[in-house]
Amino acid sequence: MEYITGRTDFKLHNSAVSLGKFDGIHRGHQLLLNKILEQKSKGYQAVMFTFMFHPNNLFSDKEIDTIYTEEEKRYLLEQSGLDVLVSYPFTEETASMEPEDFIKDVLINKLDARMIVVGSDFRFGHKRRGNVALLQSMSGTYGYELVVFDKMKLEDQVISSTYIRNELLEGHIEKANSMLGRPFSIIGEVQHGRKIGRTLGFPTTNLIPAEHKLLPPNGVYASITIINGKKYPGVTNIGFNPTVGTTPEPRVETYIIDFDSDLYGTTIEVCLYSLERREVKFHSLDELKAQMQKDITFGREYFAKVSY
């Protein structure tokens, strides 16, 4: 997959383009993605167009935590069969671009869009004046086909990144996963930790999430770790390890059941399935060790019943 980021000096050809924020790449987003992937059989390039930073961040001092970071999104999309991911710089200039100019200068001149795929609420351009009606009205002028998908619902609730973020923050992992269409995950390179789990007889992998990666509540989760395409069940603790000395940032530490290999420097994906318990501070290492054994039993029993 070609990754174009932070620049505007590019020129693609013969593209089927989906446009949006795509935080979470949830089930609604997957409708758009699958549509452009279908066009590859017709000789089109499958192109996803999004912005390098969450658009809300340009006009706010508060950074928005995202379901998937830019690096995680790229990792996931590389596996989908997408040809090109464009992460366009969202600047004052971009924000002030008139929607007609965005269609002409970006969608046509830069992307050579032959098919444009969007959600029904897609807005773009200065003051968000551009919409589906404008895209449709200009399709004859520029010769592209417009495909519009209605918002997908789950139990009469529109699936949205905001809704998913709220469910994740409440620890409702199963609900979030049903909207995502896949388990919520943390992706990164295994780091050296303090090796306390190893001294207790429970060696763990250690990830340090990006600063603005959205995380569910601190606690222990049934998890699947994907290593080089292979899935391994286990349990994951998210938090600051208060029993053994609080870490400066949240850690994602995973015990992989029946696995014993050196993973330092390896990129892994840790997928969360269910919250077992919230993070607590134990009175002693023996108490912590006993609870860790219970956590592992929980993980074994969970994946004995749940398909992964």
From TrEMBL:
CDD domains xref list: FAD_synthetase_N
Broad class of enzyme this protein falls into: transferase
Enzyme Commission number, as recorded: 2.7.1.26, 2.7.7.2
Domain Riboflavin kinase: 179-304
Listed pathway(s): Cofactor biosynthesis; FAD biosynthesis; FAD from FMN: step 1/1; Cofactor biosynthesis; FMN biosynthesis; FMN from riboflavin (ATP route): step 1/1
Transmembrane segments: none
Official protein name in the record: Riboflavin biosynthesis protein
